[in-house]
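> example.struct
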């Protein structure tokens, strides 16, 4: 693991966060030409606006501390954002591609960061990034495994593409770990799956169905919903009719708040368990559901998007984000997007250049501890290396919502609830009281 001046690298990088008292115009960061970070994001949606806020926070901290030391010259980061609209229903992938191309050609972006957010758009953008030899670090949305698989299959074409956030296959691994803990502790065995009709959710639902069945779960049914769906009653009725005990949800659309309200009003006796429940990740979730989604379990992919002690940097980030934006980190894509400018700063300073070939090599050698664990990229796939141990790789996080607030995140070593302070026991208690869930 990288050490700077005899200290672990996370100490050095985390120390930057105490410098936010300096104004961006102070220090040496204004002496050099800005390094432009182009961010193609779905700005009207959670996974877009939270990523933009996180990127801007990191850039403000870095610039306040002097910027990026590029071959002896201090240069600031500059953020340029264009709305991709790729999470909106019926918006073609070409809209996201236009946003990426505008960032490269008009905004003169040195790097593409954050998105595109929708998996289909991110995959399509890979050819554009290759054409322009533009390094990209995905940090929000785009959970499809095909992204890093394409890098491995056609390395010379797609070596400029990196992903610093999670992906569906590993996400499934964490979900199965938690599901088995719940199965063991509460004697559950029947599951109903509800997924969104997008690439990562369909794939994730299929894998969970296969693996859960192999591990003793009975999958009583599965429903796939188009983006923007506002009525889930038929699927919920099917879950109740088949006596499902867990409602496995994988949806990144805000309409999941409607799903949970309908689940509550229809008194479906199954525990909502989110691989992805976008609405539950947002601070406004409690109000949007009138408190009806209390104690549902949700996955925010990477630690730091819910309060936890994954690393010494986790809560420093959590508190800095809350202070800067007046709201806690809002969901998937927040902590991972925050890490992108820090990882780029580290790679640029080690490479001493903005040359893409040198930076590809430098990024492949990245090794530092950040907000959600150890940051290392697989040199063949350029996917961040995941782990259940933050000292070994990037870790995930589950949480529940209690009294209008996110509970303490379930850390990897809890294995979804082994810690005595786990909210799972309270989840069980409240659901038994509310709807007579048979666990």
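> example.seq
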């Amino acid at each position: 693991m990288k050490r700077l001046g005899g200290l672990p690298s996370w100490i050095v990088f985390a120390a930057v966060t105490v410098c936010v008292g300096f104004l961006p115009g102070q220090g040496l960061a204004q002496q050099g030409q800005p390094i432009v970070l182009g961010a193609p994001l779905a700005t009207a949606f959670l996974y877009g606006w939270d990523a933009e806020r996180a990127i801007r926070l990191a850039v403000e901290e870095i610039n306040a501390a002097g910027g990026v030391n590029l071959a002896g010259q201090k240069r600031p980061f500059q953020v340029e954002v264009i709305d991709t609209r790729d999470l909106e229903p019926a918006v073609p992938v070409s809209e996201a591609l236009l946003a990426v191309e505008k960032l490269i050609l008009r905004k003169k972006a040195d790097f593409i960061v954050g998105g595109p957010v929708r998996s289909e758009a991110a995959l399509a953008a890979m050819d554009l990034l290759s054409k322009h030899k533009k390094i990209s670090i995905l940090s929000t949305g785009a959970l499809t495994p095909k992204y890093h698989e394409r890098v491995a299959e056609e390395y010379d074409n797609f070596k400029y593409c990196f992903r610093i956030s999670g992906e569906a296959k590993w996400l499934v691994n964490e979900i199965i770990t938690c599901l088995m803990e719940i199965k063991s502790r509460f004697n559950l065995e029947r599951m109903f799956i509800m997924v969104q009709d997008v690439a990562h959710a369909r794939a994730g639902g299929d894998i969970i169905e296969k693996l859960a069945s192999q591990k003793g779960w009975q999958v009583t049914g599965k429903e796939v919903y188009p983006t923007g769906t506002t009525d889930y009653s038929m699927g919920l009725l099917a879950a109740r009719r088949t006596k499902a005990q867990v409602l496995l949800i994988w949806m990144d659309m805000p309409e999941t708040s409607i799903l949970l309200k309908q689940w509550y009003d229809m008194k479906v006796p199954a525990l909502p368990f989110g691989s992805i429940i976008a609405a539950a990740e947002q601070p406004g979730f409690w109000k949007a559901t009138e408190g009806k989604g209390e104690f549902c379990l949700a996955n925010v992919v990477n630690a730091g998007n819910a309060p936890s002690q994954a690393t010494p940097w986790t809560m420093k980030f959590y508190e800095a984000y809350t202070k800067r934006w007046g709201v806690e980190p809002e969901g998937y894509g927040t902590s991972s997007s925050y890490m992108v400018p820090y990882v780029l700063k580290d790679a640029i300073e080690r490479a001493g250049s903005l040359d893409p070939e040198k930076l590809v090599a430098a990024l492949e050698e990245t090794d530092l501890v950040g907000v959600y664990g150890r940051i290392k990229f697989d040199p063949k796939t350029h996917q961040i290396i995941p782990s259940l141990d933050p000292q070994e790789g990037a870790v995930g996080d589950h949480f529940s919502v209690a009294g209008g607030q996110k509970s303490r995140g379930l850390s990897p070593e809890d294995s979804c609830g082994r810690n005595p302070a786990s909210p799972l026991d309270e989840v069980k208690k409240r659901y038994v009281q509310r709807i007579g869930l048979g666990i």
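> remarks
Residues 10-30, 408-424, 431-435 have pLDDT under 50 and may be disordered.
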